[in-house]
Amino acid sequence: MPNFTLQDDVFEKAARLFPTPFHLYSEEGIRTRLRNLKAAFSWCDDFEEYFAVKALPNPSILRVIQEEGCGLDCSSMTELMLAKALGFSGHHIMFSANAMPDDELTCARSLGAQVNLDDISHIEILRTHGGIPECICCRYNPGGEFSIGNFVMGNPGDAKFGFTESQLEEGLMQLKALGSTSFGLHSFLSSNTIDSSYYPLLADILLNLGIRLSRKTGLAFAFINLSGGIGIPYQPEQEAPDIFQIGREVREIYRKHFPVGGPSIKTELGRWVTGPEGWLVTHATHHKEIYKHYIGVDACAANLMRPAMYGAYHHITVCGKRNLPLDHIYDVTGSLCENNDKFAIDRPLPEIRDGDLLIIHDTGAHGFSMGYNYNGRLRSAEILYTCDHDFRLIRRAETPKDYFATLDMDPCYARLLE
Ligand SMILES: *Cc1c(COP(=O)(O)O)cnc(C)c1O
């Protein structure tokens, strides 16, 4: 089930201090999850989590990640710029390339970041943009379908990412000839997976792959990178994956292949780290009864795109009404001129009045960061609920000035801001 650790009075207090809508994040929650993750993999030498910046690219959050001894997984120039500005040192930055502009590789190399190549053709680009490093990681795509038991979890064969196995064999030999001496293998086969057998299965796939490739190429692997993909229980009836169990099961698989020694393990979890530790706080502002009953709120899909984009479920509670019967059926909607701008469809909720404070759960990853400006709607503020129970503004809300900033060559620019 979603994360219900914060009580309504916390959200109510925040909403007295800051205008809605905003995303609120729990510092303590994020720290606890990172500590649990590190403890679960403490059996593995040099284990490192590289938090996927795209999940929650706020410097105050990334500082928390840094203080907990974790690195960053970046996949764009601006994400690299964030890592640099925060003083992440090279080996704490993973750069995962994918159809990237060439100069991003140059930038990643100049920071000393660990580069994770997505394709065999990137070897030549990297050679001429920053140079081939001593240690290099390559992303694997096994093709076909990826199943856990009888359940198809993903379709790597349709995914744009990674090398085939024969390309890896060839690419690794090229990299060796160009001077690399240490290698990593990465793969990401299934997103938002709450089945705790995902990481153990992926570890088995990557360790087996490494052993096959070692035999063929004579190369030894320094690490496997299990990437992101561990899911969170967005729905009340779902159970959270147990990170300690996952750590133990990965260890079992690992020890089968490497009773002693062996490559280290890296992760790039985004959603699992911050997803449940964020909430979108919004006021009900309108209600409307036509063929269905609608509650209009002051947030919209520009602040949280997942329901509109994936039909994703986000749990909603109403402050002060958690214990009331869910005897009303509502669509909860934003203000976009776009009918998919709905946070919930046919959702049983307590009776909602204009002015009620609604909490949309599990918005801490791929929430704010997926925001956009359709209809000229502006991105919201982000608030950190600190370990000492303070509320800290960590990003202000956008203003029309921000929205119009890129029109500064237009003759009407000055008048826009009058
Ligand atoms: C998106 C992404 C992640 C994080 O995925 P989550 O589902 O948030 O865990 C990690 N690594 C790479 C390369 C990614 O693209």
What would you note in describing this structure?
The protein is an alpha/beta fold and 418 residues long. The protein folds into 2 domains: 27-273, Alanine racemase (TIM Barrel, Alpha-Beta Barrel); 276-407, Lyase, Ornithine Decarboxylase, Chain A, domain 1. Helices cover 30% and strands 23% of the residues. It has 13 helices and 19 strands. Strands 1, 12, 13, 14, 15, 16, 17, 18 and 19 form a 9-stranded mixed β-sheet that branches. An 8-stranded parallel β-barrel has the order 2-3-4-5-6-9-10-11, surrounded by 6 helices. Helix 8 (198-217) runs parallel beside helix 9 (243-257). The longest helix is centred in the middle third of the chain and has 20 residues, at 198-217. 42% of the residues are buried. Bound molecules: pyridoxal-5'-phosphate.
- In CATH, the homologous superfamily of the largest domain goes by the name Alanine racemase
Helix content: 25-40%
Which CATH class of the largest domain? Alpha Beta
Kindly provide the radius of gyration, computed on alpha-carbon positions and rounded to a whole number of angstroms.
23 Å
Q: Uncertain runs with pLDDT below 50, 5 residues or more? A: none
> From the coordinates shown, what is the CATH architecture of the largest domain?
Alpha-Beta Barrel
- Alpha-beta content class: alpha/beta
Quote the distance from N terminus to C terminus.
Answer: 48 Å
Number of separate structural domains: 2
Count of helix runs: 13
Describe the main β-sheet briefly: 9 strands, mixed
